[in-house]
## 1
Amino acid sequence: MTLALLGAWVMLTGAAWTDWTRRQIPNGWWLLGLGVALGEMLGGGLPWTHGLWAGGVWLVGEWRAWRHPAHQPGSLSWGDLKLITTLTMLLGPFGLWIAAWGSIGVYVGAFVSWWRQGRQGRWTGRPMPWAPGAWVALSVFGGFLWIMR
């Protein structure tokens, strides 16, 4: 439990730092936090208190992310997907589970979009045509896992 909270803290602090300063943190920290949080999800799920805390941290940087210059009207941006994920957490333990899988989908989709756009610059905070689909796919997969437990 403590290790999972540490992993989540690393991910969320990095997300807030990236939003506030427009600087990319080293990818090793993202992978460490993602790996620890994913391990906790597969081992027993994220605690409810962490979900409330994570939602609060994400909402702080949400407005700036939504107003990011890379956001295109009519498309889902990094900030939009974070907001949807945060609101999903309010559905209780099931919502937390879905939000955690959806968050992983956002990062997978962002990375695939960056890769297919020529691997130039940062891979967050830019148009991500693959992120919404990855968010939906991994959220549905997480829901399926929840039902099968």
## 2
Amino acid sequence: MEITSRISQVQNHRLSFLLFLALASCARQGAPAGGPKDTRPPEVDSLRSSPNRSTRFEKRKIELLFDEWVVLSDVATQIVVSPPLAKKPEVVLNGRKVVLTFEKNEVLRPNTTYTINFGNSVKDLHEGNPAKDLRYVFSTGDFIDSLGFKGQITDAFSGEPVENVAVLLHENLSDTAIRKERPYYFTRTDKTGQYSFENLRSGTFQIVAVEDADQNLKWSGENEKIAFLDQSVAVSDSLKGPIALRLFKDKPAFRLQNQQTGRYGFVRLVFNTSADSAQINFQWPSGTKVLQERAPDSLTVWYDLPSDTSWNILIAHPEWMKLDSASGLNMPYTDTVRIKKLSRSDFMEKHRLGFGDEAVAPVAPTSGKGRLQGPASAAKPVVRQPAKTIIQLHTQPAELPFNYPVIAVDTSKWQLMLDTVPISNFTVSMDSLTPGKVWLTTEWKQGKAYSLSLLPGG
């Protein structure tokens, strides 16, 4: 009896063990070896997940259990909660379960329908098939809003659809809302530029689409492309779609962005965009000597006044208009840049001609082995070696940029040396477009070092 009992117990244990292996094999998730590729997307087990489309929602956590192992991908951009939350919820993966948790201090709006679009963020483990049309909807009120519309965003220049554009709906219809406030609803475009709003309440909104590179759900200015309608959108049962928008880069309003006016003889004005349409006039004394350098978005003025005095630069632009209180009309206006009185003698005492932005101060007399002898005013070179090192191609003239305009040169006072040997066969020419640039040409010997000294009056 005892032996028979033990054999029976061993057989029962073996049977239990084999049964456990069989059950474990049946429960294992994953694609079978061989056979057709798995293209079926993961699906939510609705009976074991947080109930979708619930009302009077007060929970802090949403759990979605899937019928197979899944992974999360690109959560930050793919998961969209609308209306937007104050802080992004935490989204984590726990086995086959995706858990979304609201921040502790998040306050949900009363009587509002929220939509959580998961996009392509949830995919199966083995083949990467994204969960299809994965949306979770809930309401903090007594019912789920059911209105909506669709559309497409394309680039105004190329006509191509634009992906991942933020499409915003604002309750506030003022022009400043898109810069200062987060929208009431928002969504993002897919690869085909398509967007869709669902579960909206009835009301009047302004619709705006922005690139939203900084992901703040606001238009951050001229650096972000924008699209909008000239009229508001009335969301109702009778709203006819789709609503197509064309994304463009807004041209910034012309303005003076920076000015340098604190040094005698030099003024530089920098604009935020092209100044081709601007009218720039000068109010300075008769007899003022002037050189101007114009670039598309800047103006550099070199000047020498007959006497120390203040003067003005007047700037006007066709876009610059302001309301005239007397006539009630928009009238053009002029901006004035005032250049304060500066001392020419102080400037001449402290500044010397030099390469680039270098201002070469007066040089003390040298003695002994120094190349120069005598008083600084008589023997000081205007540009001293080594003031600047230039890497020069032997087939091209050398570019010499000075810190002040050069209006004339005397090459008899230019000393070009190859090692210790003077070079006399060279030419000097001034740049017609840039007053501070001079070109030096000679038969450069490849791999050799040259030195250049300019004596006073050169």
